[in-house]
Amino acid sequence: MFEVLDERLAQARAELADVLRSPAGGAGEAYARDVAADRLTRRIRRLEGAEQGLVFGRIDRADGAVLHIGRLGLRVESQELPLLVDWRAEAARPFYAATAVEPMGLRRRRHLRVEGRVVRAVSDELLDGSAPAADDVVGDGPLAEALAARRTGRMRAAVATLQAEQDAIVRSPHRGVTVVQGGPGTGKTVVALHRAAYVLYAFPDAAADGVLVLGPNARFLDYVSRVLPSLGENDVVLSTCAELAGLAPAADEPFDVARRKGSLAQAAALADLVRSRQAPGGDADVATARAAAWASGLAHNRAREVFKEHLVDAMTDALERSAAETLERIDAETAASTGLDLDAAAAADLRALGFDDAPAADPAEVFDADAVRASLMDDAHVDRRLESLWPRLTPDAVVRSLLARAPGTQWTDADLPLLDEAAELVDGPPERTFGHVVVDEAQELTAMQWRMVVRRCPARSMTLVGDFAQAGPATTASDWPQALGPHLGDRFALHTLTVGYRTTQEILASTHDLLARIAPGQAPIRSIRHGDPPRTRSTRPEALAATVAHELRAQAAAHPGDLLAVICAAGRVEGLTAAGITRWARLVPAAEARGLEFDAVVIVAPEEIVAARPSGERDLYVALTRATRRLCTIAY
Ligand SMILES: Nc1ncnc2c1ncn2[C@@H]1O[C@H](COP(=O)(O)OP(=O)(O)OP(=O)(O)O)[C@@H](O)[C@H]1O
């Protein structure tokens, strides 16, 4: 199998070298060469990415056929069955979905643990009720083994051990909006990322338009950044909402202000503001031009052109009317004062010059409407009038005007969706859109952020995962219908994950009272992990840093190699850094802990975490559910 992979890689590299060497005559050829080079480079990256854990499964069907399951598909011409089946292919489904009750035609499911190119472990499940044969290796589950592994600070793909309830969502044929909820550690992120890989494989039209994965912050994106490349998928854009807006927030603001800026009412306020700059009042001609511009459905700056054309048409008509009236008046005045019919006299003159049937001078012909129109379109006076009636706008100016902000003041995180909204109103939809959008920690999004996301997904094909018990301070919705209703109506399929794979049952049990307070009615999840009950140490405020250091030193000595984290209120970060605790542990402000995972967590001053932000109790719940093995709380 690895030989075939090597062969394919060598072939792709040789083809790429050929393509890059080939001379490109014209622009067309150069373009074709770039396209081919791009395709080959992506293929090479995909093949390279799949090498680690290339093959991880095997299914033996009751009819004797054997299939190997891996990160990508490999075929050789001489063989009827594929050498390796891509995990996303329909043929691989029984590997994830078969059970003893519903064996889906399988006799045996085998998990392989391959390190480098060597098979290190094999574990079998017999699904047809038969007794193990000599070559069946029935042992501890590969899931238990995957979970027992130490955390590295980067999430790993779970492609070999996706559980049936997760796999059903990942592989769902539903192309619209899929929502996945579930308590901490139920695998929502796992599902979201594997779903992105599945979409790229199974929905070519969505794949062609690109897949976007949105996460709450850079720390989180870094944590998940390896998963998709290790599934052979490098063509996914990972971003935060702020990055999507193309700006970096540079200022902070009170939470209640941020929350207000996130509300749907801002969309209407921005639309009203832009409309208020579109030729309010005015005469009948202005009203007609405005109606035509509105009817175009275009964004403000583009509709401005339509408005201008109609306005210039009206001005041209008016000039034409007044030219005709002037001519008639001159004729009438001449006839009255001299008794001459000017038209008849002119016709007689023309006849005398030999022009028979010379037409009477029609004012419409004397007046060259096209020329007048063209010159008005370029006229500086017209442009000035246009600018006062329908000024050209920038998103920046619109938002500053809405917020009554002086030019030059810095933008905050909550301003960015307003700028994005304003950009759509004045310049039209964003240029870059995606075929499928995955949103992790989706409970965090404000209404204005949802509008940013929806705007970038014209096909409305999305996977949204989150947990409202973990919502931060900007969130005002408390369930999916509230959060999504204004943007997607009820057009989403909701799934709930119920089994926890991260936090031990003992740690989860210690959060039940808190959960009941922050998310009444949400059923606690059941964890498949067990461990020591969480510990609490109390100390004096002035001894806090020393106690944390002491605790970490003890843990590092007792559990060398474990990934430790200290989670505290943002205001504590500086002091703890100065005390040198980053020697033993990662230091994470509670506000940035969403989605992360560590072997052991030390929570510092939980009451400070609760007090730091309006969502304090939910921040604490997030912090308490990050550890896979041990949790210690240090309070004063
Ligand atoms: N099928 C699986 N096989 C192996 N590991 C899994 C599986 N499902 C989940 N895990 C592991 O469980 C842990 C929690 O998963 P994940 O981060 O996806 O949960 P989550 O629901 O997104 O959590 P949170 O709500 O805290 O963001 C991770 O280490 C993940 O790798």
From TrEMBL:
Pfam families: AAA_19 (PF13245). InterPro entries: DNA_helicase_UvrD/REP (IPR000212), P-loop_NTPase (IPR027417), UvrD-like_ATP-bd (IPR014016). One of its GO terms (biological process) is recombinational repair. Transmembrane segments: none annotated. ATP binds at residues 182-189. It comes from the Bacteria. GO terms for molecular function: 3'-5' DNA helicase activity; ATP binding; DNA binding; hydrolase activity. Coiled coil: none annotated. One of its GO terms (cellular component) is cytosol. This is ATP-dependent DNA helicase. The lineage of its organism: Bacteria, Bacillati, Actinomycetota, Actinomycetes, Jiangellales.
